Automatic annotation (TrEMBL):
It is an enzyme of class 3 (hydrolase). GO terms for molecular function: acid phosphatase activity; metal ion binding. Residues 52-139 form the Purple acid phosphatase N-terminal domain. The lineage of its organism: Eukaryota, Viridiplantae, Streptophyta, Embryophyta, Tracheophyta. This is Purple acid phosphatase. Keywords: Glycoprotein, Hydrolase, Iron, Metal-binding, Signal, Zinc. Residues 353-416 form the Purple acid phosphatase C-terminal domain. Residues 151-338 form the Calcineurin-like phosphoesterase domain. The keyword Oxidoreductase does not apply. It comes from Tetracentron sinense (Spur-leaf). Residues 1-28 form the signal peptide.
Length: 446
């Protein structure tokens, strides 16, 4: 039966393959050449239709986890049973379900169930829908230290498999993904293969994502509503953070306030996102969350020739808000390479501005963005076009260690690392950003 389902998926895939792909390729930028990408891995559906597949978890507000999964069988209830002992589920919770259509594609039943309150730094065992495999996850700690893995522009290729295997070698707490997940690019069965591909990792640790251009998937006249699959499959705690859109939200975890912004929805000063961001930043208490981290998709600072200037309008709209709030780090994806900047504000080195990092090198099917601008900018401290992932270990209120791990084929090698100090402890920066005087202006134009 699964074989038949699979062949149906494949034929649907072929029917709807060409038009959207052509449309997508026309949008792609032609000025740089990428190396041969590695093969896509099509992870098959090999469980009974009533069993959960594509299980993934995300932080769902204070002390809660959202469990998301899909069943082909529409009669399966949206229930999660869970507990601290394997096979013994003391608690259960019921949630909601959704499904969507896209051209001739019709999704399975997509379930989302919030469970909790959960204890911090604790292993839980859980089962979805009353059938099938048991899964397990660990909740993040409530205090420092905490470790984040950061990987953008993932896709589902052999490179992605290498990246995720390396990510899984550390006992990290939360994965942060600055956009571009499945690279389905309108081919909806690829969202299902992606869900199955990441399940061993995303069911094990919370994955917190924001959207990239590959999630838009709107199509003139027929599918004008953007982010249909993304919003149905990867809901994030936007409601819990006072946002009205799944495209931007925030959350707190162990002394770190993390803001996920939307590069592909309105961000100008009259927009809902701008107003939400302003209000969210105003509520940040650096006594409680000394670290402030922001993720976007299209980088605001980049010296790669790929996608030059695509983040400029968003930077112009929002950079001052982030600077005044003394944001510590801004992670971006989109450019398929790694790059780390010094602290920057308004195109100049500024010791009170955020450190900017591009980490769009998770391993997708498009390959790497090899070309960097010459001569190098003094603001850009490290840049390299290789696949890999990052680790942010926040040790205490003041110190964090950032490292970038390059995929040397099957091995993972630390290629760049740096100690970071939180801006929350700097009285000088607090005064400086209020007065909006750049504290250190080296006149290093990008
Ligand atoms: C990830 O790491 C954990 C702990 O070391 C291990 O049990 C698990 O099998 C790994 N997952 C995959 C998919 O390799
Ligand atoms: C924070 O961690 C850093 C790095 O390990 C250490 O040097 C520093 O003393 C720690 N600060 C506090 C207050 O524990
Ligand atoms: Fe992108």
């Amino acid at each position: 039966m699964e074989g038949k389902r699979w062949s149906q998926n494949v034929s649907l895939f072929l029917v709807i393959f060409f038009i959207p792909l052509l449309f997508h390729e026309l949008q792609a930028s032609p000025e740089y050449s990428r190396p041969p990408p590695r093969r896509i891995i099509y992870t098959p559906h090999d469980r009974p239709d009533s069993h959960p597949q594509q299980v993934h978890i995300s932080l769902g507000g204070k002390d809660h986890m959202r469990v998301s999964w899909l069943t082909i069988d529409k009669s399966v209830p949206s229930i999660v049973e869970y507990g601290k002992i394997s096979g013994k589920y003391e608690s259960s919770a019921t949630g909601e379900h959704t499904s969507y259509r896209y051209f001739f594609y019709s999704s399975g039943k997509i379930h989302h169930v919030k469970i909790g309150p959960l204890e911090s730094d604790t292993t839980y065992y859980y089962r979805c829908g009353g059938f099938g495999d048991e899964f397990t996850f660990k909740t993040p700690p409530s205090t420092f230290p905490i470790e984040f893995s950061v990987a953008g522009d993932l896709g589902q290729t052999e490179w992605t498999a290498a990246t995720l295997a390396h990510v899984n070698k550390t006992d990290y707490d939360v994965l942060l993904l600055p956009g571009d997940l499945s690279y389905a690019d309108s081919q909806q069965p690829l969202w299902d293969t992606f869900g199955r591909f990441v399940e061993p990792y995303a069911s094990h640790r919370p994955w917190m994502v924001t959207q990239g251009n590959h999630e838009i998937e709107s199509f003139p006249i027929i599918h004008t509503q953007a982010f249909k699959a993304y919003n149905a499959r990867w809901p994030m705690p936007f409601h819990e953070s006072g946002s009205t859109s799944n495209l931007y939200y925030s959350f707190d975890v162990a002394g770190v306030h993390i803001i996920m912004l939307g590069s592909y929805t309105d961000f100008n000063s009259h927009s809902a996102q701008f107003k939400w961001l302003e209000a969210d930043l105003a509520m940040v208490d650096r006594g409680r969350t000394p670290w402030l981290v922001v993720l976007v998709h299209a980088p605001w600072y980049s010296t790669n020739t790929a996608h030059q200037g695509e983040g400029d309008s968003m930077r112009n709209a929002l950079e001052e808000l982030l600077y005044k709030a003394r944001v510590d780090i801004v992670f971006a994806g989109h450019v398929h390479a790694y790059e780390r900047f010094t602290r920057v504000f308004d195109n100049k080195a500024n010791s009170c501005g955020p450190v900017y990092v591009t980490i769009g090198d998770g391993g997708n099917r498009e390959g790497l963005a090899l070309m960097f601008k010459k001569p190098p900018s003094p603001l850009s401290l490290f840049r390299e076009a290789s696949f890999g992932h990052g680790r942010l270990r926040v040790l205490n209120r003041t110190h964090a260690h950032w490292s970038w791990h390059r995929n040397d084929d099957s091995d993972s090698t630390v290629a760049d690392d740096v100690w970071l100090e939180s801006l929350s402890k700097s009285k000088l920066c607090e005064e400086t950003v209020k007065a909006q005087i750049p504290s250190v202006s080296l006149n290093d134009e990008l």
